[in-house]
Automatic annotation (TrEMBL):
It comes from the Bacteria. It is a multi-pass membrane protein. Keywords: Cell membrane, Membrane, Transmembrane, Transmembrane helix. Its main location: membrane. GO terms for cellular component: ATP-binding cassette (ABC) transporter complex. The keyword Secreted does not apply. This is YjgP/YjgQ family permease.
Amino acid sequence: MFRIKRLYTFVLETFLPLLLATYSVCLFILLMQFVFMHIDTMVGKGVGLGVLAQLFFYAALTFTPMALPLSILLGSLMTFGNLGEHLELLAMKASGISLLRIMKPLIYSVLVISAISFYFQNEMVPRAQTKMWTIMLSLRQKSPELEIPEGSFYKEIPGYNVYVRHKDKKGGMLRKMMIYDYSDGFENAKVIVADSGKLNMMDDKQHLTLTLHSGTSFQNLNTRRTRNVTEKIPYSRETFMLRKILIYFPSDFEMADESIMGSRETGKNMHELTTYIDSVQYEQDSLAIQTAELFKKQVYAQTFKGERYYTASVADAKNDSLFAQGLDAYYEQLNIDKQIHYMQQAKSRSERVLSEYNYSSIQQSDSQKQLLLHSIQFEKRFSLALSCLLFFFIGAPLGAIIRKGGLGLPAVLSVVLYLLYYTVDTFGTKMAKQDVWPVSEGVWLSSILLGVLGIFFTYQALNDSAMLNPDDWKIAIQKGWAKFNKKHKSHK
C-alpha cells in the first residue's frame, strides 16, 4: 500500500510541473496570437500601461480554458514519454502495476481540472470576456495618438486631411502645409495652403488648435455638380497671414459601457444562457402563431369579402354560386375596368402580404441566429471542459507507446492532434451556426473524435501494441531496406 502511495506521489510530481510549464507556454502563444490579430487597435492610441495590463489580464483569463486542453495533452504525453524513455514505466509494469493504475492519480487530477475549467468558464470567463472586449471597444473608439508624418496625408483628424512636407522636430513647426477641410461636409470642402503652422493639444484634452501662417484658402461656391468642363465655376479665395482653427479631437481614454458586451452570448453564464434560450424559443412560437393568424385573416378573409367565407365549411362553399360558376368564368364576365381594378387590388394585396412575410422572416431569422449562438455557447461550456479529460486519455497512452520525452516528438504530436481537434471543432461549430446541423451534433463532433482516439490509444497502450512504437517502425523499415538492397544486388 505504501509503495502505491509513493508511486502516486512520484507520478504527480512528474506531471504537475510539466503541466504548469506547458500551460504557461500555451497561454503565451494564445496571447501573442491575440496581440497580432489586434495590434492595429492597441498601438498608436497613447494609452497607459495600466489599460494594456488590464487588457492582457482579462485576455489571459479568457484564454485559460482554451490553453488547458493543449497543456494537458502535451504535459501527459511528455510525462509518460519520459517515464518510458528512462525505463521507469517498464519497471512499474514489471512490478505488476498496470498502466491504468499508474494513470489513476492523474485521472483524478484531470477530473478536478476539468471541473475547475467548467466552473471557470461559467463564472469567471463571461465577466473576463466582457471586460476584455469592453476595453477593446474603448480602444477602437479612442482617437489615435497625434503623430503627423512627413510627405503623406494624415487622415486621423475627423473632418481634415493634413499634408506636411517637412517637420521641425525641435520647435514642432510644420512646413509647407496643405489641408483639406471637409468638416462642414464634402459639398462645402475647403483647401488651405499655408507656408507653416503648428498643431497643439489644448489643456482640456478635447480640442486641437491649428495655427497657420502665410496661407491661402480656396472654396467652391457652386455645390451643384456639372458635367460641362467649359462652364465657369465660382469659388472664393482668401489670403491670410495668421489663422487659427479649433478642431474637436478628444484624446482622453473613456471606458465604454460594459452592457454592450455583457449582452452578448459570451458574457452570460449558464443560468442566463438558459433563460435567454427559453425566452427566444417562446418568442419564436408566439411569432409563428401571430404570423399564421395574420395571413389567415388578411389573405382568406379579405379575399372572399366576408366572414361567412372565412368560417364556412367545405360543403357550404361548394353550394355557393360563386364557387359553382368558377372564378375564371366570373372574371371573364366583368368589363375591362373592373378586371383592371381587381387585378390592381390583387397585386397590391399580394405585395402587402409579401412585405409582411419578408418582415416576419427577417425577425424569425434574427432570433434564430441569436438562439443558435447562445445554444452553441451553452454546449461549449461542457465540451471544452470534457476535452481536458479526453486529451489526457490521448496523451498519456500515446506517451507510453512512443516512449519519447522532452519537447521534440511530443510537441509535434500534440500540435498535430490539437490542430486536428481545432479543425473539426471549427467545422462543426460553423455547421451549427449555419443551422445545417443540430447544435449538439456540431459542437460535440470534435469531442466524439477525441473519444474515439482516446479509446484507440488507450487500448493499444494497455495491450503493449507495437503498432505505434516508433522504434519498432524504425527496425521494420531498416529490415525492409536491407532486404531491398540485397535483392537489388542479387539481380545485378
